[in-house]
Amino acid sequence: MAIERTWTAFAVATVSALVAALVVTALVALIVRAAGRRRRWPNALVRRARIPFRIFLLVVLLWIGVDLTIPVGDYQPVVDQLFLIATIALGAWLVCMLAMFLEDVALARYTIDRPDNRIARRLRTQVLILRRLGMAVVIVLAIGAILLTFPGAQAVGTSVLASAGLVSIIAGLAAQSTLSNVFAGMQIAFSDAVRVDDVVIVEEEWGRIEEITLTYVVVHLWDDRRLVLPSTYFTSQPFQNWTRRTSELLGAVEFDLDWRVTPHEMREELDRILARTDLWDKRVSVLQVTDAVGGYVRIRILVTAVDAPTLFDLRCFVREEMIVWLHRESPQSLPKSRVRMVDEEPDISRRPAPGAKRGQEASGLFHGDVGAEGRASLFTGPIQTAHVDPDER
């Protein structure tokens, strides 16, 4: 039975497609939720894919209805091309939402809200990079497919599709330095050198890795600034990663005190300070004298904590409590600068007599008086001189 190609039939087909899309979407949502009633992933799937799936289904049904009922005319190829482009774009959108759903499921299994979360942070970083890479490939394929719908742009579309291949990606990375960040981002994800939520020191700044993309890395600094670095920075520049193996850290608190300080009393006070705080993880507690020059004694305290923020708070707490104790219980230990002031004239009456000094000096010399000349003659003896008679000249 042939379907009439009239505008009335077109309107009926449009309304029918809209109703069918709503009904099918509702049925699919009910089936998904019923299948995973005791699990969390069905709600996440519905939340991510409901809107793109509904629009995609509506466009496909409209395309079928329009193709069957729209009156014949010169505009029909244009309408078909528009529906094809919309279908490709919406299909890419739906695939991207499914990728985000898979990301949500993976991240829900590996949370980072616990102290020892190194494995979770590594998997989280890899999942984020893979999701972004997959979405980039889908978008490139969609753009290439859309360009192929235009007869004059088929060559361009073919080249775009070819660029999504692995060989073309490697060639592009070798030929264009601007794409080197993409390869660096993938290297970061799978080399495990840096992960999301890692504590790092970059450009002499302390912060946490907030986001890792294919081309750049965002570092959340301690004062709420964001430092954006290219991915190649972490593959070509040295940086400090404080949570590479574990989040537990050791920190130091130093004091320059007076020589009258009593280290054993400070050590006892340190034990009392750490006993009344939960910031210390009870692994290391050391107080040592590391230097004693320049008029000061350097005291170094080593303590440990479960992570970098807790360690910073613990160091501040120990420093504050120890300063209060020094002022209250050991003021003699506070650093001092000693200066000796001399205001009186020198007492010349205590100096030795000049004559006696000269006599003492002369007693050891070989000139200056008769005794000295006699001592000299004992060493040199009389000097013989030749006598010449004038008559013999």
UniProtKB/TrEMBL annotation:
Please state where this protein is localized.
Membrane
What stretches pass through the bilayer?
6-32, 53-70, 82-108, 129-150, 156-175
Domain Mechanosensitive ion channel MscS: where?
178-244
Q: Is Membrane one of the keywords UniProt gives this record?
A: yes
Q: List cellular component terms (GO).
A: membrane
> What are the start and end residues of every segment in region (Disordered)?
336-368
Major location, coarse class?
A: membrane
Q: Specify residue ranges for compositional bias: Basic and acidic residues.
A: 340-350
Could you list this entry's UniProt keywords, alphabetically sorted. Answer: Membrane, Transmembrane, Transmembrane helix
* Superkingdom to which the source organism belongs: Bacteria
Any one GO biological process = transmembrane transport
**What is the official name of this protein in its record?**
Small-conductance mechanosensitive channel
